[in-house]
Amino acid sequence: MPTLDTSTEPSGARRVGDLTPDLLLTGEHHLCPGCGEPLALRCLLDTITDLEVTTQTIGVVGIGCYTAFTTSIDVDLVQALHGRAPSVATGIKRMRPDAVVFTLQGDGDMVNEGLQEVLHTAARGEAVTCVLLNNGVFGETGGHMTATTVLGQRTKNTIDGREAEYHGYPILIGDLISRLEGASYVARGSVHNAGAVARTKKMVRRALESQRRGDGFSFVEVLTMCPTGWFIPTGESPEYLHETLGAVHVMGELKVDGRVKTTDELHTENVARQREVEARLAAGGLDG
Question: Of 6, 64, 154, 171, which has the fewest beta carbons less than 10 angstroms from its beta carbon?
Answer without folding.
Answer: 6
